[in-house]
């Protein structure tokens, strides 16, 4: 299977809908993203954030109100889907129920009137890639959801597109199969090296599969970064709370030298890794993940309001100076476990603190 991965560029891309009930709706606003050849990029955000509209514009199912879409440096903004050199895998698989697996995969090649021997070669190669060699003669009704999703992926790959698009492809599968299929999709994408844009509302999926993640809110890009940076160094409070769990503290900058900042949080001073040059006295918001809180260390005094054993962690909610703080204490088997109503001291892992 040959694919030529190409760069995908979204330049000042916007989409506005005019509706009878809500009037003008700005679904996507001034998006600028470059997706490198062979990169796996995920569009992530809450319902209605614009991620599906953005994918549909890339695919050609929606025309942008303004801006450009470039694939391999060529403007495809006004081209129909079949002229864009893209493949797409849909949420509902979109297989023809009356055709067997071979003919479902071969359908697009037959429309292009390719020679029969080339069609057979490409279909069998696609089946090998998705590990479905023995299913060529089955019809969709004889297969599980995961198997149908593999066929849908093979059908997209057989066209040897430059860009592969996924529209929430795993949302109809059960939890265990979702994890298996996300690993399989990522493996296949890496093996082929195809430029990929993937839409999901599942944060774990985005974190596990992506080279980079685009976080969207109300059609506006909030952050474009690796999963590690999105989690460890979120750009704002929305991203902090949307990706995983977060505690937000208020602090005051006591000193700053472009490498670390001394920050006073409720009377306790922490040395925070920070490259921004803050003025002394600047009020800041601090994000601390639950697993970055040090249970039993001196710093803050709190009252435990919830204590739940989760196996690998003991999860707490505590009240501290009028604020609710979430804590996830790793490997509780060898540690003291606090009960509800008890007093707990805790501190913060200062190297894991991030100033918003």
What would you note in describing this structure?
Helices cover 24% and strands 38% of the residues. It folds into 2 domains: 233 residues, Rossmann fold (3-Layer(aba) Sandwich); 111 residues, Nucleic acid-binding proteins (OB fold (Dihydrolipoamide Acetyltransferase, E2P)), CATH 2.40.50.140. The model has no long low-confidence stretch (mean pLDDT 92). Strands 6-7-8-3-9-10 form a 6-stranded mixed beta sheet, sandwiched between helices. A 5-stranded antiparallel beta sheet has the order 13-12-11-14-19. Strands 2-1-4-5 form a 4-stranded antiparallel beta sheet, with helices on one face. By secondary structure, it is α+β, with helices and mostly antiparallel strands. A hairpin with a 3-residue loop joins strand 15 and strand 16. The longest helix has 18 residues. The two termini are 45 Å apart. The protein is built from 8 helices and 19 strands. Helix 2 packs parallel to helix 4 and helix 3 crosses helix 4.
What is the count of distinct domains?
2
Mean pLDDT: 92
Low-confidence stretches: none
* Largest sheet report: 6 strands, mixed
CATH homologous superfamily name of the largest domain? Answer: P-loop containing nucleotide triphosphate hydrolases
Strand order of the largest sheet: 6-7-8-3-9-10
CATH topological fold name of the largest domain:
Rossmann fold
Q: What is the straight-line distance between the termini?
A: 45 Å
The general outline is elongated
CATH class of the largest domain: Alpha Beta
Corresponding CATH architecture of the largest domain: 3-Layer(aba) Sandwich
Whole-angstrom Rg: 25 Å
Strand content: 35-45%
Structural class: alpha+beta
Order of helices and strands: EEEHEEEHHHEHEHEEHHEEEEEEEEE
- The overall strand count is 19
């Amino acid at each position: 299977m040959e694919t030529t991965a190409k760069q995908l560029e979204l330049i000042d891309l916007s989409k506005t809908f005019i509706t009878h009930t809500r009037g003008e709706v700005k679904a996507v606003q001034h998006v600028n993203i470059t997706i490198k050849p062979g990169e796996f990029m995920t569009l992530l955000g809450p319902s209605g954030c614009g991620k599906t509209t953005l994918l549909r514009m890339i695919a050609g199912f929606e025309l942008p109100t303004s801006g450009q879409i470039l694939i391999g440096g060529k403007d495809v903004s006004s081209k129909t889907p079949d002229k864009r050199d893209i493949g797409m895998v849909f949420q509902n698989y979109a297989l023809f129920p009356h055709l067997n697996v071979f003919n479902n995969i071969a359908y697009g090649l037959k429309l292009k009137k390719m020679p029969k021997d080339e069609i057979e070669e490409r279909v069998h190669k696609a089946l090998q890639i998705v590990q479905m060699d023995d299913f060529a003669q089955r019809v969709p009704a004889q297969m599980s959801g995961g198997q149908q999703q593999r066929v849908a992926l093979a059908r997209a790959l057989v066209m040897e597109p430059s860009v592969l698009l996924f529209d929430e492809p795993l949302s109809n599968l059960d939890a265990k199969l979702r994890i298996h299929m996300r690993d399989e999709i990522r493996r296949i994408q890496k093996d082929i090296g195809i430029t990929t844009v993937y839409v999901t509302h599942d944060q774990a999926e985005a974190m596990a599969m992506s080279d980079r993640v685009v976080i969207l809110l109300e059609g506006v890009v909030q952050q474009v970064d690796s999963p590690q940076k999105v989690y460890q160094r979120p750009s704002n409070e929305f991203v902090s709370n949307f990706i995983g769990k977060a505690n937000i503290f208020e602090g005051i900058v006591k000193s700053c030298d472009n490498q670390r900042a001394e920050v006073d949080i409720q009377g306790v001073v922490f040395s925070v890794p920070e490259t921004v040059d803050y003025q002394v006295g600047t009020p800041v918001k601090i994000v601390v993940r639950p697993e970055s809180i040090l249970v039993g260390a001196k710093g803050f005094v709190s009252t435990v309001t919830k204590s739940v054993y989760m196996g690998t962690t003991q999860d707490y909610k505590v009240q501290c100076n009028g604020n609710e703080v979430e804590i996830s204490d790793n490997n509780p088997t060898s540690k003291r476990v606090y009960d509800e109503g008890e007093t707990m001291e805790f501190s913060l892992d200062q190297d894991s603190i991030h100033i918003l």
